[in-house]
Amino acid sequence: MVNRREHLAATEFEPTFPRNAAFCPIACSGAGKSSLVGALAHRQGPGVIVDGRILANGCPAASRIPAISGFVYQDEIFMPSLTPREHLTLMVSAPHSRGTSFGTRKEGRQEVDARLKLDRRTPAYSRRSRVEHLLQDLGLRSCQEALIGEPGANKSLSGGERKRLAFATEILRDPSVLFCDELTTGLDSFHACRLVGILRDLSGRGKTVVCSIHQPSSDVFALFDRIMLLADGRVAFAGHATEALRFFESQGYRCPSSFNPADFYLHVLSTGGDGGGDRGDGGGDSRWRDSNRRICDAFAVSPLALQTMAVVQYFHNIHLSYLDSGEEVKDPALEVKIERPGYAAQVCLLLWRDAMDIIRNPAVLKLRLVQKLLLAVIIGFIYMGLGRNQRGIQDTEGAIFVFLTENSFLCTYAVLQVFPRELPVFLREHRNGVCSLPAYYSSKVISQIPLFVVEPFVFTLVAYFLAGMRAGAFHFLMTAVGIVLVANTAAAAGFLFSASFDSVSMVVIALTPFMFTQVVTGGFFLSIETIPWFLNWTQYLSWFRYSNEALTTLQWHGVQHIECEYEPGEAPCLSNGTQVLEKYSFSACNFTLDYAMLLFLFLLFHLLAFFMLWSRVRRK
């Protein structure tokens, strides 16, 4: 098992993981225990190459492991706006079951999705009972209604509470195999023992548990049936914890009676056992490596290792017999069907979560609405008294420019952090089968649309009449529709750039020239007919160009007389609306096409954004 840095994570490794056992890989930092657990769980990171086979009852099982297992990651990632109770209810109620396929059943909102961690046949009261028991058993009852929050920001849960919540999430559906990466990191000794005790109970019910731990306390260490010690990518020991002491004694390393056995093993594997040097000390480095090599070589030929190899060979022979007979290799325990309920059910669930995120951040929502109203009032007063004269032509075009830029830039930048902030959560949920990419992306878009309808409409309602723009219900409503389309198209462009980069800073850097081009090709500062031929195509991707033409048409098409306030010969005057449209190279015949193109750009940007997000998810 190697990664792109050619770092050896584990070699010569053929262990067995029986049922009814809690297995604990232990190693110094960087020795490969997390890579090992990730590879066994078929959840290795990008760039990691796993060489070898994973067999379950003699059947190839690598690709099937995620369907029958749970995985507790070293880092906890949650939606910060949910409470522990809501999160667990969501997970036990998510619409993406790994159980056997059954029919769909309509239930209440809390249970409408109850299909991810538990079987569809599980009654609603059983799902609720499961959540209640986990909250109680893992000591989460006191914080069940507190927001999860984000570490270092609006943090509500402690690191230990987050770790326990992550653990509860993975054991909701009682998986056959449970993998845990650094489960006790950040926990006090009491809660560490509590979690490992639950692991032991799971193993006692016929489950297989593999849990890597960096430096377990003596109490935690005593709860594991079997341990595995890793050194330099090799196995220094694998077997029952009681046998480890005898093995190290046979190699000349006797654990003091007052010493934590886990600390003793790590001490031996990191210093060579004499304390004279460690892996960071040049003088002791060779002694440390020689000691580890000798220990690993001794274990490789020990009776315990040979016994393990015999078991491995037995299952390997079963696998070969399947291949020789030409039979399809199957095991009922591994034939777990993954059912994907309807797209609409997934979207509804994710929309509920997005709604909670918006509702529980009222300050941001209120600030955006107040900002819109304030800008609308200011702009309306600045342009108040627009007239049908020569100065009014320029002022009206200026008002249209402000209307469009204000509802473009703010809407574009409002969504830039959506995917950089939430993509880690989605990647983990997607990997665990919680939701599909189309459902996730659709929910993000749909959840934002109401805001990008209400805000520009309110803005237009206030600013339009304060400025004294063209009267008439048709002209106002079509202007409002145009502004709403602009806001949503601009947001779609924001989604595209948000989905393309990992950080908001990179998104802003890439977005700046794009927005500059959008404005310049909108026809405000130059006639679009004068754009050089090799850049002429850019105007067709500019929502400013279509919206400017549409809104200008609404203001001037059909106007038969425009007052000329200049003295004869002082300045040329435009006498009607048709001349105004010709001045800006616009045509009233394109009015319907302009709105259609705004809708087309809205769909195009979202399609490109989805493709960019899909490619990133595929790479990761």
From TrEMBL:
Domain ABC transporter: 2-257
Keyword vocabulary terms for this entry: ATP-binding, Membrane, Nucleotide-binding, Transmembrane, Transmembrane helix, Transport
Listed GO CC annotations: cytoplasmic vesicle membrane; plasma membrane
Protein species of origin: Darwinula stevensoni
PANTHER family listed in its UniProt record: ABC TRANSPORTER G FAMILY MEMBER 28, PROTEIN SCARLET
A Pfam family the protein falls into: ABC2_membrane_7
Organism classification: Eukaryota, Metazoa, Ecdysozoa, Arthropoda, Crustacea
PROSITE patterns (alphabetical): ABC_TRANSPORTER_1 (PS00211), ABC_TRANSPORTER_2 (PS50893)
UniProt topology in membrane: Multi-pass membrane protein
SUPFAM superfamilies per UniProt: P-loop containing nucleoside triphosphate hydrolases
Example GO molecular function: ABC-type transporter activity
Compartments in which it is found: Membrane
Transmembrane parts of this sequence: 369-386, 398-419, 449-467, 473-497, 504-528, 595-614
Annotated InterPro entries: AAA+_ATPase, ABC2_TM, ABC_transporter-like_ATP-bd, ABC_transporter-like_CS, ABCG_dom, ABCG_transporters, P-loop_NTPase
Protein name: ABC transporter domain-containing protein
Superkingdom of the source species: Eukaryota
Main localisation: membrane
Family of this protein: Belongs to the ABC transporter superfamily. ABCG family. Eye pigment precursor importer (TC 3.A.1.204) subfamily.
